[in-house]
Amino acid sequence: MNTSPQFPSAASTTVGTTLEEHIMAGQRGSPGATGDFTSLLSSVSLAVRIIHSRVRAAGLAGMLGYTGHTNVQGEAVQKLDMFANEVLCTVFERSSHCAVIGSEELDELKLSDPMGRYVVLFDPLDGSSNIDVNISIGTIFAMLRVPQGSDPADIAASLQPGRLIAAAGYAVYGSATTFVLTTGHGVHCFTLDPNIGEFFLSHPNMRCPDTGSIYSINEGNSCRWAPPVKRWNEWIKTEDKATGRPYDHRYVGSLVGDAHRTMMKGGIFAYPPDSKNPKGKLRLLYEANPMAFLFEQASGAATNGIDRILDIQPTDVHQRTPLVLGSRNDVATFRQFMLGER
Ligand code: P6P
Fold this sequence. Notes:
With 342 residues, the protein is α+β, with helices and mostly antiparallel strands. Helices cover 28% and strands 24% of the residues. The protein is built from 7 helices and 17 strands.
């Protein structure tokens, strides 16, 4: 039986709690843990630090700009996207614990180690369009176990609903590089000390406030929204002191940036379906699911506007979904508009 891991106590004033110590503490709290999971999480940490170093120097290293290729999404692939994808694929393949790799930058799922017990799914560099203008970008990942007795080569092993995620997290390459992680026992944020290349626990037990005061949506799409979304959008911008409206509007166009702010300050992020993206724009397996798992672990909520993201049964690696996440009360209000209850 898994007991709740006893994470290291609050950092001492001299030496903080490192990401590795936190991960190891999590393993000690899981009887029967083999260390595979811990090893995979350490692989992610290495990859993020390598990507961090390249992102920081991208302008000088000639890594800005496009490669001339387009990915399965039909999006122009930037040099840093390819670099981040190669780094993550390499560390997971070397770990020998990863059976299947799924990436925004890979057309198909990639079989790795047949003895591996985990499926890893990631967006190697989310927010690519912001790379050249120095706005926060990030890496998003989810890890799931290969179901007992199933063949990793069977795509069904990877197309599991998000509620079965074993670990999820994201890195934000912003004014600081932060790493937000959950293994199902709360959400914990680590900040990189670039001078020593170590992540230190900076925000233990993160909790998304039940109600916020910020809404985050691309208002430029408003002409394409369905009427319930337009009604919600007008409602949230209407003066009403009793309900703290109008909310402030913030939108940076990187899911990791908008989600991290929402996680820290509360409020709501929404990318609803519209006439240009009738199924939504964001990808279920390696964007919406990991974010939804993290927000629920932080007492927040995540839906497709109506239904819980984590209950969606995937049918394709790159399928898209509408995504509404953030403070549970704000997500619930959005849902009332979608159901016509407001
Ligand atoms: P739009 C970035 O390209 C991304 O996939 C997410 O990181 C972000 O939330 C969204 O697209 C932004 O899309 O249409 O508002 O530019």
